[in-house]
Write a structure and sequence with these properties.
The protein is 35% helix and 20% strand. The protein is of the alpha+beta class and 852 residues long. Strand 3 and strand 4 form a beta hairpin. The two termini are 67 Å apart.
């Protein structure tokens, strides 16, 4: 074993050995209990960043720990490979998205292997490969057969320059995130998945996910947004039409003085009179350009336009004006609301702005009578009904049920449950995605592609000119096709799937990535699912994580899987942050461009900014390759795991990296300096004095590290406890007298650190003369007998304040503890001249003496 620690040579050799021996290969017929560990797979952008290093290091600790505990661990890796960045690169660099993507995959795979992650690379998959998306297309066809996939007209965020739909997240301040063009609302035919059919089950099952963080579950419950109320029909004056509204506040129905419809409501123009037409059209155009999220925020200016039509309040016959309002969305309820300005703040502000009358229908008890003219804000609290005819005097909560029953009896409405969740629009007008397997025939209409004709392969011979729209619509060989039903001329669907579709089932395909008889091998998927531990960012709480749960339930109902939930436990890791630096002349600077506080290009003083999430745009990034070259992968792993708990943000600190590097050198020296001493000696079952104290610390450390890793993920405190053990090893002065105790301490240190820094630990273990690797030895267990203390330290308080400490035998009874406490020198000084009234002994912890 070499004297100095050389990370570069050690790490490369162990990575080759793991690869050659297929150390991390997982098989179903293993006979051991399974453990499926999965991190969210990356988009192949070209290079890994420190966020990847941290996320995958966290996962690798758990995977290696479980493997050492004897589990059959599945730990796969792949690529979320479709998406717009590849198309952007094609336009900017004159290359094909496929070529760009596969080159990036090769680069990132090499980088991940340099980190020593314990992946089963034989299960690697890329979602852009036809052998992956062919089965996704088949799942779509099965969903289409069941009515879970359908096409309808819908308003979408549309960029006229890029000629594509944008997700809400891709709209920044009303403009396209890519080109800056103002986004408009456009009505398009889109494909949808009927996730709303699973709304209640998705909600109910959140209460069974005990291994998920509560903030994520709360976000999903709010996104699903179950509310109980009534649908009420408001007739339109001088018309056969009626407007359906949904409300949870039917107790305020008698106070409705106007109606508000979404600008996108299909009845908007039908209700508009000729004299109001120009104003209404202008309002609709303006509102459709506004951000939907901002429209519903409390501080967004409320505005509307009168349609010229009136509705009738069904319970009192009141004639009420019908407005379009910017704060009403088609995405919730029916897209129309009854407005009760006295008891809803948005309606209140709107009514004041447009001089609409208000009627109080809930009077708070023990308060002055509410005067709608004098009110400065809506009353949204409880009270008793007034101005509500037969319901006057009833508590408003009780009135909800009574009025709901009345509406059903009279045929004015019905009780119903509403969900904020809307069906998932999966159509995207772009090229680099999974083709939707649908054919349009003038005679037969919408025709699904036959299963035997799958996959519908994305053509690779396309040109990217920067021109808007998908190249598929201009690719004749792809577009023009014979109808499978009648044989006549037809055309293919040119939209591709939202990339969230690919990531909604990849975890299941990992269980059988080379299976060719269908999307999933039922035996393999039922063996491995659900994922025992899933790791990724909280930003995916209400998109990817919700869609994956939905897809799992769909696949269950299609007979493809047995389980209803994909992920048993979820860990959401924090971000990696770093201080920004900027130059007055050259803007943001990379860390290496700052030399002695000055810009290396112009010499100007550099301004230090805030600690922010690492991002290429602000150049506050660290290249993992440079980190590995300088320090080694183990140091990069150790720092990312030691600097902060996994769920917290990690602040990059170069001194912290140096400290981790020094510790690994210290560990190496501890083993090397004692190799001859510990070679061939037996580990004693017991010892005494300082040796006994060291053994106690060894077994206490084993216990703490095990508990810190297993389910708690307190990696930072686990590492800290091993560092303390290494310090104790250096401080142990009876090395020659107790070489067996030294051997136990050194071996325990190496075994406990293996999940965190596997390369150095495997090298040290082999250097100690062990064969078969650390996995053959397994995870260490602690000896309860070794944890027993000979003595214990007791805190002594006088009148609740700490005045001293005493050391007593571990088995000392309360009387002996009390006697020692009263005899402690400093305690005696504080008791001088006082009478002891009471002595309270808390066994094993403290003594409190009450004296006056």
């Amino acid at each position: 074993m070499q004297e100095r620690y050389d990370a570069g040579s050690i790490e490369g050799e162990w990575q080759k050995r793991w690869d050659r021996n297929k150390t991390f290969e997982a098989k179903e017929d293993d006979g051991r209990d399974k453990y499926y560990l999965l991190e969210m797979f990356p988009y192949p952008s070209g290079r890994i960043h420190m966020g990847h290093v941290r996320n995958y290091s966290i996962g690798d600790v758990v995977a290696r720990f479980k493997r050492l505990q004897g589990y059959n661990v599945l730990h796969p890796m792949g690529w979320d490979a479709f998406g717009m960045p590849a198309e952007n690169a094609a336009i900017q660099h004159g290359t094909h998205p496929g070529k760009w993507t596969y080159e990036n995959i090769d680069n990132m795979r090499t980088q991940l292997k340099k980190m020593g992650f314990s992946y089963d690379w034989d299960r690697e998959l890329a979602t852009c490969h036809p052998e992956y998306y062919r089965w996704e297309q088949l799942i779509f066809l099965k969903m289409f057969e069941k009515g879970l996939a359908y096409k309808k007209s819908s308003f979408v965020n549309w960029c006229s320059e890029c000629q594509t739909v944008l997700a809400n997240e891709q709209v920044e301040n009303g403009a396209c995130w890519r080109c800056g063009t103002e986004v408009e609302q456009k009505e398009l035919d889109q494909w949808f998945f009927k996730i709303t059919d699973y709304a209640q089950e998705l909600l109910d099952d959140t209460f069974e996910l005990s291994g998920w963080p509560e903030p994520v579950l709360t976000m999903q419950r709010n996104w699903i947004g179950r509310s109980t109320g009534c649908e009420i029909d408001f007739p339109v004056v001088d018309s056969d039409l009626s407007i359906k509204v949904f409300t949870t506040r039917q107790d305020t129905l008698y106070g409705a003085t106007f109606m508000s419809l979404a600008a996108e409501h299909p009845m908007a123009m039908t209700l508009t009179t000729e004299e109001r037409k120009a104003d209404v059209e202008a309002f609709i155009a303006r509102v459709r350009a506004q951000d939907k999220i901002k429209r519903t925020s409390d501080d967004f200016a409320k505005e509307g336009v009168f349609t010229g039509s009136y509705g009738i309040n069904p319970v009192n016959g009141r004639r009420i004006p019908i407005y379009l309002a910017n704060f009403v969305l088609m995405d919730y309820g029916t897209g129309a609301v009854m407005a009760v300005p006295s008891h809803d703040q948005r309606d209140f502000e709107f009514a004041r702005k447009y001089d609409i009358p208000m009627v109080v229908v809930i009077q708070p008890e023990d308060q002055p009578i509410l005067d709608p003219v004098a009110m400065t804000e809506a009353w949204t609290g409880p009270g008793r009904l007034v101005n509500s005819e037969m319901f006057d005097g009833i508590d408003n909560e009780a009135a909800r049920e009574k009025i709901a029953q009345y509406l059903e009896e009279k045929g004015f409405g019905r009780k119903t449950i509403n969900y904020r969740l809307r069906d998932w629009g999966v159509s995207r007008q772009r090229y680099w995605g999974t083709p939707i397997p649908i054919i349009y025939c003038p005679q037969c209409g919408i025709v699904p592609v036959a299963e035997q004709d799958l996959p519908v392969v994305l053509p690779m011979d396309v040109e990217f000119s920067g021109e808007g729209g998908s190249p598929l619509a201009r690719h004749r060989e792809f577009l023009n096709v014979a109808c499978p039903n009648c044989g006549g001329e037809a055309r293919r669907e040119t939209d591709t799937f939202d990339t969230f579709v690919e990531s909604s089932w990849y975890f299941a395909r990992y269980t059988c990535p080379r299976f060719e008889q269908g999307p999933l091998d039922r035996g393999a998927v039922d063996h491995w699912l659900p994922v025992d531990q899933y790791i990724g960012g909280i930003e995916h709480a209400v998109m990817h994580l919700l869609y994956a749960r939905f897809f799992t339930k769909v696949m269950r109902d299609l007979g493809m899987v047995s389980h209803s939930e994909p992920f048993k436990n979820l860990l959401t890791q924090g971000m990696v942050c770093m201080e920004t630096a900027s130059c007055p002349e050259h803007g943001w600077l990379f860390p290496e461009q700052v030399v002695d506080g000055k810009c290396d290009r112009c010499g100007a003083a550099v301004r230090a900014g805030r600690n922010e999430k690492m991002s290429k745009s602000k150049k506050n990034v660290v290249d993992p390759d440079q980190l590995i070259t300088r320090y080694g992968a183990d140091t990069a792993r150790l720092f990312s795991l030691f600097a902060a708990p996994p769920e917290k943000d990690l602040e990059w600190n170069e001194q912290g990296v140096e400290g981790c590097f020094r510790f690994l050198h210290r560990l190496w020296r501890a083993v090397c300096d004692n190799l001859e001493r510990i070679s061939g000696v037996e580990i004693p079952a017991s010892s005494e004095g300082a040796a006994k104290a060291l053994r106690r610390q060894v077994h206490r450390t084993i216990k703490k590290v095990t508990e810190d890793i297993d389910g708690r993920f307190h990696f930072n405190t686990a590492i800290a406890s091993v560092m303390e053990l290494v310090n104790a090893i250096y401080g142990f002065e009876q090395k020659d007298r107790y070489p067996g105790v030294m051997r136990e301490a050194l071996e325990a240190s190496v075994r406990l650190l293996t999940p965190f820094v596997p390369h150095i630990c495997e090298e040290l273990w082999a250097g100690m003369g062990h064969e078969g690797g650390i996995e053959a030895a397994g995870w260490p267990t602690w000896d309860e007998a070794a944890l027993v203390e000979d003595e214990k330290t007791i805190v002594v308080q006088v009148n609740g304040k700490v005045r001293g400490k005493v050391t007593v035998a571990a088995d000392a009874d309360n009387e002996a503890v009390q006697k020692a406490a009263l005899a402690e020198g400093n305690v005696m000084r504080f008791l001088e001249g006082k009478t002891v009234r009471k002595v309270v002994v808390v066994p094993g912890r403290l003594v409190n003496i009450v004296a006056s």
